[in-house]
């Protein structure tokens, strides 16, 4: 069970959401297999934005993922053309 969550909120045009979802799908398995403490990854779609909710064993692991090679060199690079604004990043711990 996740003890911390990393929530990344993305502003993406409706026309680009399928491409963004493809990036999510492409990197879900590598995230779960290679990132220390990773336990889940979900794509949440709302009219106003898209959120990716990542589950971790600890808040420190969630924070470490943000500077990982997978995140900075792969996910961010591929998502960048679709972003309308700087993503909102939040880390939560489970009480």
What does this structure look like?
This protein has a single domain, classed as Alpha-Beta Plaits (2-Layer Sandwich), CATH 3.30.70.100. The mean pLDDT is 96. 19% of the residues are buried. The chain starts with a strand and ends with a strand. The protein has a four-stranded antiparallel beta sheet with strand order 2-3-1-4. 38% of the residues lie in helices and 29% in strands. With 95 residues, the protein is an alpha+beta fold.
Instruction: Tell me how many strands there are.
Output: 4
3D shape: globular
Q: How many helix segments?
A: 3
Give the strand line-up of the largest sheet.
2-3-1-4
Q: Radius of gyration, Cα only, in angstroms?
A: 13 Å
Strand content bin = 25-35%
- Give helix and strand order, one letter per element, not per position: EHEEHHE
Summary, kept brief:
The chain is an alpha+beta fold. The chain has helices spanning 17-34, 59-65, 69-79; strands at residues 4-10, 38-45, 50-56, 88-93.
């Amino acid at each position: 069970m996740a003890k911390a969550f990393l929530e990344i909120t993305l502003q993406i045009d409706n026309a680009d959401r399928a491409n963004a979802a493809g990036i999510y799908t492409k990197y879900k398995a590598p995230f779960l297999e290679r990132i220390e403490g990773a336990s889940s990854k979900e794509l949440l779609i709302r009219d106003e934005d898209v959120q990716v909710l990542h589950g971790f064993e600890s808040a420190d692991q969630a924070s470490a993922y943000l500077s990982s090679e997978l995140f900075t060199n792969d996910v961010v690079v591929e998502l960048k053309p679709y972003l309308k604004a700087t993503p909102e990043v939040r880390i939560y711990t489970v009480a």
